[in-house]
């Protein structure tokens, strides 16, 4: 029986291994992590991450050929294939701080694999890593190998949170990069055979190691660039009276461009986009490609500009001050159908409003109060380090209350900010909300999900990103 072990029980490792276990009942799959609480959650009825369909997959295979354990060394020693899915956070200090990936966790995983291995292994990079990481890992493994052979493969994930299980069931492509040597090609074939249980052969792409590593960064950079492009256009739409939804629809019907990732919003978030672009910038800088680095820097700058623009629009619309005013925040996760708050635009918007002394009442159907308070007090990039290295649970931000539904958040508020496109926010009884708010009552739609005309009929003053401005707002330009 082939044995697979995955180091790291997070957003990538957990769902990926669960689907492999489901589709390959003849393979034993162990997911290991040093976090006792995280592994306990994977073994319970309350999984540590929310992802539609994940519960069912885990319950079908757990205890049969899918195991979650803190006995990291035992499972690594027994495995034929070891996936490494540990964090690669952005460095917070030292060389490359704020841009380069911190490979501390990767390196310690590689050293541990070398220490405990008694048989030849295929080691698979599943985390997003900078180009040439495999070379560093190879050096660590070969210098500590005690005669054991290791083959390194790069197998980046292309999952979108909220649809991860469907993405795993029917991937656009599976990418496997390896050495162009007989042993390297053999290792590629072994991993290919695992995926071939359910993925059509023409969707399994094989490349050299460096192409696979760079393809992941490139894919995320291209997607983020599309979002920044449409968000840059949204500012111009507001200035000219154009409607960004109509513009993006017209652009998206061009088959060379396509409609995906052209929704204007308050900005992109998630664990990958910003981190991967910063990583790409650092690699470009290290290779003397300053112009290329500057090009990608602009994608992040536009994203920051969009979040600042939104905050400025809120403040300027409300007589240039939100001091002491209650603002309802609907949605804190970076997108719907996930509880993930990593790099969510909501953090920067909330911090911007708190900086102007607003009182915030926050509701999100999947994000806990503890997580929201932690996010609002944590320094940038700290979120991606293991929880025991993050700042201790901070004293709560006094101006923030976290509530159990949208109506409670909106009660007695001066304005509502929609920051996540949860379906339930489309169906709210906005007449009921309007009646319990302070007047004038504002809606700032950061996701373009509200029915603007209907809200204006009720009596709201509405700001929707990239849409023609409410007459009220035209007289109060947002300072950029």
UniProtKB/TrEMBL annotation:
It catalyses: UDP-alpha-D-glucose + 2 NAD(+) + H2O = UDP-alpha-D-glucuronate + 2 NADH + 3 H(+). Residues 328-452 form the UDP-glucose/GDP-mannose dehydrogenase C-terminal domain. It is an enzyme of class 1 (oxidoreductase). Pathway: Nucleotide-sugar biosynthesis; UDP-alpha-D-glucuronate biosynthesis; UDP-alpha-D-glucuronate from UDP-alpha-D-glucose: step 1/1. Keywords: NAD, Oxidoreductase. InterPro entries: 6-PGluconate_DH-like_C_sf (IPR008927), NAD(P)-bd_dom_sf (IPR036291), UDP-Glc/GDP-Man (IPR017476), UDP-Glc/GDP-Man_DH_C (IPR014027), UDP-Glc/GDP-Man_DH_C_sf (IPR036220), UDP-Glc/GDP-Man_DH_dimer (IPR014026), UDP-Glc/GDP-Man_DH_N (IPR001732), UDPglc_DH_euk (IPR028356). Its EC number is 1.1.1.22. The active site is at residue 272. NAD(+) binds at residues 8-13, 33, 38, 86-90, 127-128, 161, 272-275, 342. Belongs to the UDP-glucose/GDP-mannose dehydrogenase family. This is UDP-glucose 6-dehydrogenase. It comes from Ziziphus jujuba (Chinese jujube). The lineage of its organism: Eukaryota, Viridiplantae, Streptophyta, Embryophyta, Tracheophyta.
